[in-house]
Amino acid sequence: MRKMIYASLFALSLLIFTVNSVFAAPQKGTVIGLVEVRNDSQGGVIFVFKVSGRFPKSDLNNGSVSIQGGDGVYGLHCNQVDEETVQCSTSRKTGGQNVVVVFGGSVFFTKVPERSEGRGGFCYPVYDWDLGEPPTFWQHQGNHCQEGAAKEGDQIYFYSPYWQSSYYYIFHPNGFDYSGWENPGQGYYYEEEENPEGSPE
Fold first, then answer.
1. What residues have CB less than 8 Å from 170, skipping those under 6 apart?
2. Which stretch of DSSP H or E encloses residue 65?
3. In the predicted model, what is the mean pLDDT of residues 120-127?
């Protein structure tokens, strides 16, 4: 009888240890989305990913960037900034190209902007609807840099990392009042009437 009790206690202890080990293990990193693509004048071509959990070094150094319709394939060199952010760099040869980015088991199709003019240029925030249903605020999509100052009504074609597609955005020097949302101020804004296909999909 005592042996049975000891055996039961041992089995229970082993089960508790196993469960605790499982829950104590760090969460494996997963990619949520590509949130920013830029081509800095000094920092090179940068990709910023929103993630969850920690990535091992093997995953951080195992990504790639390939040019669509071309032969160029380049390495992706990444660093985990925090639990929610991974930042990666790649070759400047991808500048101005449509590329396929592979990282953390996810694949993204995007366009790398031309090299920015640095501090000598003019950079403006770009805003689009948030991903809520229905949307309730202006979500910052990134920054657009150009050689000259923007004027009211100027239009750009910009890749939205949240909607994962490109749309037309209109410049408003005083921001854009829409549906009672908070107005973030000067920048380029998505306007439904300027996009024949309607809201971002």
1. 153, 154, 155, 176, 188, 189, 191, 194
2. strand 63-67
3. 81
* CA separation for the pair 194, 150 (Å, rounded): 18
Whether 125 and 105 share a structural domain: no
**Same domain, yes or no, for 61 and 125?**
no
Mean pLDDT of 103-121: 77
pLDDT digits (tens, 9 = 90+) for 9-27: 444 454 444 434 333 344 5
Q: Is residue 11 in some structural domain?
A: no
Query: What is the side-by-side order of every strand in the sheet holding 98-103?
Result: 30-40, 44-52, 85-90, 73-82, 63-67, 98-103, 106-111
Q: 134 to each of 35, 129, 137, 176, 179, how far by Cα in Å?
A: 21, 9, 10, 18, 11
25-63 per-position pLDDT tens digit = 445 788 988 888 888 765 678 898 989 999 998 889 899
- pLDDT for 160-196, tens place per residue? 888 888 889 999 999 999 989 999 999 999 987 655 4
Residue 158 belongs to some domain of the structure: yes
d(CA 187, CA 23): 45
